[in-house]
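REVIEWER CHECKLIST
Item 1: Sequence provided? yes
Item 2: Single chain? yes
Item 3: Sequence as submitted:
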Amino acid sequence: MDKRQINQLNMYDAVEQVLNAPANTAIWSGNPAMSTAVGTFMGHLSAINANDTVQKTSSAGTTQTKDAAQLAMAKAAVKACNAGRAYATIAGNTVLFDQMSHTVTEITGAADTDADDICQNIHDNLNPYIALMGTGGYGATATTQTALQNLINTYSGMIGKTAAVKAIVADATLTLEQHFTAENAILKNSLDTLLEQYEVPNASFYNQYHSARVIHDIGHRKTVILEGFIYNAAGHALSSALVELTGDAKHHKTTDATGHYKFTRLHPGTYTITVSRTGYATQTKTIVVKENGTVDTDFTLVAATGSTPTGGGTTTGTTPPATS
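Item 4: Structure as written out by the authors:
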C-alpha cells in the first residue's frame, strides 16, 4: 500500500467510526438508501483490509518467517472455527461442529504440509454456510473467508511455491486499487449526496461526517491492534457486549457470536477498554501499548449483584477454542 492509499484509508476509517457511532446509526439506519450506501462502503473497506493483509504478508519474503505466516493462518482459521461452532450449536449441525474443533496449537504443531491442509479444510467446510452466517452476525463472512484463503495461500507459498506468492502479491495490489477506486466513488456519488438531507435536522452527524471526509497527509499507517474475547463466569462466549475504547482513540464495538471484539489501525499509546452488557457488572482495563503489534485482552464478566443477565444478544453454549 502506497502513501496515497494509506492517507485515503485513514480517512475511510474516520468515516467508518462516524457512521458506526450508536447515536449516528440510529439516525441513518432507517433510511434504505443510506443503509445500502453504508453497506457498500463497509464492504469495500473490509476488502481493502483483507487484500492489504495478504499483500503485506506475502511480499514480506525475507522479513517474515514461515512460522509467523503459519501462526497468522492458524489464528484466522481458529476464528473461523469459533464462528462455525457458534453457528453449528444454534443450527444443531453436529457434523459442522466437529469439523470446527481445531486449535492454534494443533495447527502450528502440525507438519508443514498438514498445517495448510487443516486450515483449507476449515475454510472449505465452512463455505456452504457462509451466506447464512454472514447475515446472522456470527463473525464469519465472505470477506473473512477470502482473508483466510489469502493467508493459507501465503503460507503455502512459503513452503515452496515462490511463483504463487508473487502472483498473490500482484493480484492483491491490483485488487486493492480497484477497491480504492470503488470506495471513493461510493463516497462521492452516494454518501456525500445522501448526507445533505441531514444538514439541518441532524447537524452534529452532518458535521462529524464532513470533518471525517478530509484526507490528511499522515503518510503512515496505524498498526496497533487491540482484540480479545468476552466470556461469562461459566467460560461461555458473550455476544452483543458493548466494548468501548477511550484514550488516544475513541471507538465502539459490539462482540460477535463468538464473543470476539477487535480494534484495528491504532497508534501506540494508552487506551482504556470498558466492557458492559445487560445483567453484568461493567469491567474496565487500561492498557499501555509501546510499539506496533497485536495486544490480546480477554474479559470475564460476572453477573451484577441481584441481577439475572438478560437481553443484549445471546450467550453461546460453547467456549471458543484456545488460541495458544
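Item 5: Key structural point noted by reviewer: The chain is about 55% helix and 15% strand.
Item 6: Recommendation: ____
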